[in-house]
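Help wanted!
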Amino acid sequence: MTSYRLNQGGLVDRATTLDFTFDGRSFTGHAGDTLASALLANGQRLVGRSFKYHRPRGILTAGAAEPNALMTIGSGGRTEPNTRATMQELYAGLEAVSQNRWPSLDRDVGALNSLLSPFLGAGFYYKTFMWPAAFWEKLYEPFIRKAAGLGRATYEADPDAYEKVWAHCDLLVVGSGPAGLSSALTAGRAGLRVILADEHHALGGSLLSETAVIDGVSAPEFSARCVEELRSLPNVRLLPRTTVLGWFDSNVFGALERVQKHVAVPAANRPVERFWRIAAKHAILATGAEERPLVFGGNDTPGVMTATAMRSYLNRFGVAPGKKVAIFTTNNSGYALGSDLESAGVALTAIIDSRADGPAYSGQARIIRNAVVTDAFGGKSLTSIRIKHDGRFETMDVDALGMSGGFSPVIHLALHRGGKAQWSDERAAFLAPDDLKGIALAGSVTGAGNIAESVAQGSTQAAGLASMMGKSAAAMSASVEGEMENRPSRPLWFIPDVIGKAFVDFQNDVHRADLKLAAQEGYGHVELAKRYTTNGMATDQGKLSNVNAIGLLAQARGLSPAEVGTTTFRPFYTPVSFGALSGASKGKHFQPVRKSPLHDWAAKHGAVFVDTGLWYRSAWFPREGETAWRESVDREVLNVRSNAGLCDVSMLGKIEITGRDATTFVDRVYANGFAKLPVGKARYGLMLREDGMIYDDGTTSRLGENRYYMTTTTAYAAPVMSHLEFCAQALWPELDVRLASVTDQWAQMAIAGPKARTILQGIVDEDISEAAFGFLAAREVSLFGGKLTGMLFRISFSGELAYEIAVPAGYGESVADALMALGEPHGICAYGVEALGVMRVEKGFITHSEINGTVTPADVGLGKMVSRTKQDFIGKQMLSREGLSHPSRLRLAGVMPLDPAHTFKGGAHILSKGAEATLENDQGYVTSYAWSPTLQSPIALALIVNGPDRHGEEVVVWNGLLNEFTPARICDPVFFDPANEKLHA
Amino acid sequence: MPDLIHRPALTKEPLVGERIRLAPMPEGTLLEVRGPQAELPALEAAADAAGLVIRTNGPDQWFAISGQPMLRLDLPDIFSVTDQSHGRVRIAMEGAAVDDVLAKGMAVDLFDFKIGAATTALIGHITTHIARLDRDRFELTVLRSFAESLWHDLETMSAEFLDR
Amino acid sequence: MASLITCPHCGQRPKEEFAIKGAALARPAPDAPQGEWYDYVFLRTNPRGRYEEYWHHVSGCRRWLVVTRDTASHAVEDCRDAAERAPT
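Answered by r_m:
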């Protein structure tokens, strides 16, 4: 027991006691504690084992940069590894488990790695696991995989909800310390729409750990008053527990709000995390500065922490770091801590200052100037330190050590859009570039040294923005007493006479010698050194270590930190859960579902549905006794061919084209002619891309002089609509043409089969005999004795006598019901997209299986359709390319196995009989395959070299995946009723 | 002759919370109108006479809407009118939290979105036409086939404000 | 790529509402030499800097737009309706 809770002081609510467990042991803390402060209050110093050497590690910081105190929180699907104890708010029932140790934190077998440390230095992966090559897969990789990583993710589903939300503001303030509060207040008072975000659960930032007096009240009280006023302003939104973690194009910021990460069982109707996308006209980063550790031997011993963290635990949480404390500092930060420790009655042995000229100090502690700590000892808990001063070594018994290597402004966000950090010799820190647009910086992130300066800076920045936006703002200032002004430190990268391992990157176990080795071996460039040593990787991304590493590399290479430079800063600032990134888009919300107006009709007929893009399409309709899908499909096909069937085709794209120039427009977007299409007729149309390949096909009907009803394939409904809009708006804006997507307005069904007309006549008021409503007739019809108007099209995708009827969607089910009832005596059946597909293959009709972006109209036997007289249409010019009419192109043909008992699959390749399966011998491939119940044989469509000229030729269909060779014959792609007799039955 | 029954796309009970209420609106008349912006006054006059309300839907395009079915809009030839009464479904969303709920799916800054304003935007993954009918009341118009999915999304977005 | 695009008709919208077609090139006349057609269909520059593209406000007003943006800085210089502007 070393650290402990003081009897008084701090901002925790001592009246509220919270029970929690760590590694199964029970502890208590108070409301307002973090997990880290509660552990320290209970004297729990050892909180984890390091990544590579499994060294005992303690809490190093009190914030987001924590590299050591990573824990697994929660259980079951709520298990969350690598949670920083310093950021985790304590709640009753919290279960925390330490990581990277076995069998226990106290006795850890992996610590043997320390003995192997000579072999585990920088680049050891590259050196150790090089040979023999055969060992890699069997031995090295499994070993590395097992050893790598920190916490373990759960395999259980996350039961909690997440969401994403947009926000808009004039000013986003990041950080709620003195500069952040003054920015938000100044802008808020001026009437700007302000969002103030802070990653901690309590707003106030560094003020919560400060003992100075501001405007006559304590710093936390000053902060509370500011927050209270902000809360009263309707134009200000406060976002505590919210980490702004990325700055993106257009001044959009990403932020993660931990809505319910501080309760044991989150309320089910609220998200646990909320991902904000904040479109800010402007932002002020008041993100503060991170204190750097010092790089001496054993600087990772539990009990050693940064001075700022120690001060925060002391002042904010009422936790003393130990019973005999020392401070090692390069700047004034250590003196502020020293003074607070002594005021709280904690024994301070010494302040060890690397400088000759520290400030005056009025406390009892011994001040040792021009001195360094070379080593800390104690293993699992600090017991002593070794000091060098005046050329002598001195050992001092202490159980806690605060250290301060200077401050690194938290400039990460300012660099997310490609800016480069600038080294300042004066500040001994990397600063944000000064040509930033859309964001400004205020407070210690700029290097500001005291509270009053931070308050003034924040207020000035905000007032400037307010006046830019036409609002007047009053500047804010604060009078501060009792603050230890923080002057820039003199960097102390390299400490001489160190005995033990001196850590630079605690999380990745990178120590000083690793960086030296990297420089020696030619990996001294900052980006190379990062990869070679792993410095700056993993969950903390080098928040504490990068600048120290740069300093050491600079020293090793004889350069300045400015010349070494930094690695690239990228979003996110801290890790983000996958849950938050996916938001509500999971399960049934992963993507929307589109339902046909005939969905319920299909469902009540027992449809099996298949995903087609976002649509649910009825695939087949199994009947009692049918066990395999093909039984249903075969029955449906045969029934349509002998009686009749009804199929839902509502998901076809439907576009209404109107306007004075509608005809010209339709004529230009199709390759075949439409100008002479009479009103009341439908025509099959081929739409090309500008490169001459087929884009889509469908029928378009002329319903009026300037009114067309176009259908597209289901898959290309949206792309075709966009394409037409492009043609109308960007290519030919001079044409008067209007496009409306009416896909959802109409329930459309195909009624096919010899009895289709008889059944349909039962609901259509007009005469639809062959004479009155011949093939390709298309017009509005009156239905149900004038109760409904629909559209009727005499088109066929099955080769049968067939119609498509479109009715207003809300009546779709009722009309389908009526047709099924009328058709019952005629043997009508519902058929699905599978039977539809079989019948179209039997008839050699193409779909996007054939229209795969490589085929021209001629390739699929439709070359004659292409207009030779039109001056222009999309695709005309490139279609005339010589190569596109070469006979050796892959062209459409049919393929059937010689033995109907043999099968093959779509995608299988065609080989000449006796030819080896090589690329050179490839003769094409199968695009569509089906079992034809009509022909009692497998049939297929294929794109084959010279296909149309090879009907009758025996070939081999080769499936390379299954290594199957099926003897087959090339044939006409129209397998059934080539004379189209049934169409006109 | 068999009976003709109209089936609404969305058969949902209203969702109710103190600060949010969500309900399908009657499937009446919804006409998509295209024409020159300059002729808007003529369109508005004709719509008014026909008992239809005009909502803007981008340049040169409007919806003419009513809760009553089968309304007709007679316009000169410079306009194109397409019946979408069955192709679109309207959902009413209202309550003090309505702006906050919509922000969960939509990037439109509702601060500047005045009463009477209308636009088309993405809510989650679904394109939706939104109109602010009152300070705390919106009409959401969506393609019929997406109506159920949008409803589910709105329900999720509203969850924290619903009485459950 | 920009996170927000200011549609001339709808105002500031997120990029998710748009689809990008690519370079905003002028379609040659039907009787233009085939070389011009080859360039139009197949030839693209890939500049570092200013670039004009066709964007479609698919989940908004459904207008085609010409967006002028900087491929390096991602700054959007201009965004206008495609019908109002012959591409350059």
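OP: Thanks! One thing I noticed: Chain A has six domains: 4-103+293-404, 162-289+410-481, 502-564, 600-651+746-840, 653-741, 885-984.
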